[in-house]
Amino acid sequence: MFADSAKIIIKSGKGGNGHVSFRREKYVPDGGPDGGDGGKGGDIIFEVDDSMNTLNDFRHKHKWTAENGEEGKKRNCHGKKGEDLVIHVPAGTIIRDAATDKVIADMSGENKRQIILTGGKGGLGNQHFATSSMQAPKYAQPGQEALELEVRLELKVIADVGLVGFPNVGKSTLLSCSTNATPKIANYHFTTLNPILGVVDLGEGAGFVMADIPGLIEGASEGIGLGHEFLKHIERTKVIIHVVDAAGTEGRDPIADIHAINQELESFNPELLKKPQVIAANKIDAIYEGNNEIIEKLKETFEPSGIKVFPISAVSRQGVRELMFYVKSLLDEMDDTPVIYEQEFFPDSRALEGEPYTIEIDPEDGAYVVEGPKIDKMLGYTNIDSEKGFLFFQKFLKEQGILKELEAKGIQEGDTVRMYGLEFDYYKE
């Protein structure tokens, strides 16, 4: 069975606890603390596997957990780091927070691998807590807790062109005659229950990926039938081909069908109507000589608004090549950057809720010093040197109210902000 959505629970590894121990060697009766640090917990990493094209692997396994870090050992030995858990998904998989439906990651384009949950930091051993007044500390730092999150995986077809139309208008036949795809074809409503992809080869390296989007019904945008499951696949396509029965063999009105489908697209996502559209008036092999009123009406109705009509026969392939070359010309005029959803939800920030922080002004240089467990943990979760990490850092400061509090304390553009080992100049957005 084709699976294009799944809900799973992911959990990073807990950091190993710091160890409490003391040197016990011959001739060293009062050895100092030598407890090692705990190992970092394993991360949850999602990685694109180009050999996968469904989410079937997630239908029966619902919890995915990385390994915990080991506790530190005596003689200053660090605990072993927990193994990361790499979860393989097909290209085009969107990872959403199940509670808010916000996007955590879009595994498309150049984004082939992304850490979704960071393992907990290992706790410090008791050697770190020795002071002049306490030379034999009997405590160590516990490892940072694991993060657990329920996520929804959603696979969207990555295709340049989407075929839409009501059942039995010939979409599957058009896909099979113009690409390398071999869909099952039969005369049943909702015959195509899976989006099927094929590559249109126009020679000399020219071509594009085309998808047969399963048949639509009125009310699809409201979730009637399998509407939402189908409509979401159109979001990534760049050009929409309406396939209609120009011969009227199904007793349908092609013009009404196109209006109905566009209404469903608009109701689901108004941006979809901004995509270029083409009409494939199919089954002209079944039209009697001279009986082409439907095609003329289609042209009169849609071509003035820039939607070109191509009379075709998917069975005899008449007009199909001309249609495909025209679609390719539309694609050539468009940006070939894939549609990628921006990250809206940062899972690691949930672990920072409720943690305190302080803002002080350094009397020596006037820098604004921001410290506390909230800041320490945030910097531990985030790679500030990466573009994504820095964007998360900026978003974190804003959402946690830290920027607002800095402004309340009188910070001005160009002033220095210091967070442990990190320094940067403040500039208002």
UniProtKB/TrEMBL annotation:
It is an enzyme of class 3 (hydrolase). PANTHER family: DEVELOPMENTALLY REGULATED GTP-BINDING PROTEIN-RELATED (PTHR11702), MITOCHONDRIAL RIBOSOME-ASSOCIATED GTPASE 2 (PTHR11702:SF31). Residues 349-428 form the OCT domain. The gene is obgE. Pfam families: DUF1967 (PF09269), GTP1_OBG (PF01018), MMR_HSR1 (PF01926). It comes from Roseburia amylophila. This is GTPase Obg. InterPro entries: G_OBG, GTP-bd, GTP-bd_Obg/CgtA, GTP-bd_prot_GTP1/OBG_C_sf, GTP1-OBG_CS, GTP1_OBG_dom, GTP1_OBG_dom_sf, OBG_GTPase. The keyword Magnesium applies.
